[in-house]
Amino acid sequence: MAEKVYATVPATPGSEPYWEGAKAGKLLVKWCQSCKKPHHYPRGVCPHCMSTNLECGEAKGIGEIYTYSIMHAAKPAYVVAYVTLDEGVSMMTNIVDVDPAKVKVGQKVKVVFKPSEGGGRLPCFTPL
Amino acid sequence: MSLNGSAYIVGAYEHPTRKADALSVVRLHADVARGALEDAGLSKGDIDGYFCAGDAPGLGATTMAEYLGLKLRHVDSTECGGSAPILHVAHAAEAIAAGRCNVALITLAGRPRAQMVAAQAAAKDAKGRAPLALKPPDPDAPELAFELPYGPATQNLYAAVAKRHMHEFGTTSEQLAWIKVAASHHAQHNPLAMLRDVVTVEDVLNSPLVSDPLHRLDCCVMSDGGGAIIVARPEIARQLARPLVKVRGTGEAPKHGMGGKMDLTYSAAAWSGPLAFAEAGVAPADIQYASLYDSFTITVLMQLEDLGFCEKGQGGRFVSDGNLISGVGKLPFNTDGGGLCSNHPGNRGGMTKVIEAVRQARGEAHPKVQVKNHDIVLAHGTGGSIGTRHVGSTVILERE
User: Fold this and answer.
1) Tens digit of each residue's pLDDT (9 = 90 or more) over A52-71
2) 10 Å Cβ neighbour count for B208?
3) Cα B36–B38–B44 angle (5° rounding)?
4) Touching check for A34 and chain B: CB below 8 Å?
5) Is ipTM > 0.90 here?
6) How far is B131 from chain A, CA to nearest CA, in Å?
7) Using CB atoms within 10 A as the burial measure, which of A112, B173, B290, B389 is most buried?
């Protein structure tokens, strides 16, 4: 079966570096240079302190499943999840390359990049 | 400024339709406005404040004011999804207390069921795929690109909330099913309810899994329709022939992903509830009936905990064995059958929550589900999704 190609949503101005990073196989997290805290989804203004002094840093790409659900109403079923990265932020994602029945809350996962329309890549996660 | 006693709900009306093939969205809004005015014993010219949310088409409040021919001096179209009408009750009381209006009309209406059926038929004719949503998402929504590709849906994100609750607190599918069972016990007495059959825990567990761990019967119905509420100054309320239902406490709060510090174990009710209880000067134990947002069974369970009807994590035990069934349990809820069985007009359950709370406070609910003591009642709404971002709004009403 051909590999799923994910939909691409046009990036809003300012969020391009995240997608460029993904294309290059890097999972980027925005860090505030003022309050030193990371956040996700990436913004142009820090949601913790409102500073605009932000930089992208490469995450290790390791985390654990905070919660998930298997969408049985879809064919094929897929696993939507929140993964909490080791860096401390949670992100919506899909758990892929695994039998959905084997997915668990608290499971350790690593990032994998899946193809998306227009030659992009989308960060997904798979059990370690 | 406390809103306790600043305004009264004097009119309430629910549209009887559940599938509005021949009625436009504005006509539904107009029908419920007429119904609420008639219920209150007021006329159109008495309305000087109007409240609606994103379900009103076009320019929202402006479009509706034009369609209805309203002459207004106050409008508010705060949009927070399905909890908007509950928040609008608070905003109407605020506006009345501030002298900005005397009689506030709040309407909600929608016809997603008729629209979805039509869209599916059109897709079939064109041999294309049926749409998943009726409206395209807002391309300027900042989270869109970081969520939409992953296939988020209302069902699977609430399911993820349920999954985490089960993980943290040991909540079970059987316990969630009791919420649907209670709703169905009430819906059997509502001739307008879409699902009137009494169901068992087994029926819920044997219905197909929509998104693990939520089954089809853990989900609300999809329906057309709507409702309206009229809120008035105390002096006006006392001149009318309807039972006096006072706005005693209100609270509202948004909750969201907090920049990635996500915690799905509680909802915005944990913030809006205490505000409402403090303003009302009552405690959860004083509430004799509760209308709780029931997009899914898990929504109800979270709100019960977050509003303080039981401790965090004990919601599963609280709802078991019929504790939410009127005449059986300690906290009768959604005695019209709620969104789980009766209707969920416009995919927004807040209006019908207020309306059934008003019926209970007045003593006008169906005799089979009317609670005996109904001096203090509560309505709470969750607009948006607990799985991503939402607004909780709480109102506490007192029958004088």
Assistant:
1) 999 999 999 999 999 999 99
2) 9
3) 80
4) no
5) yes
6) 13
7) B290
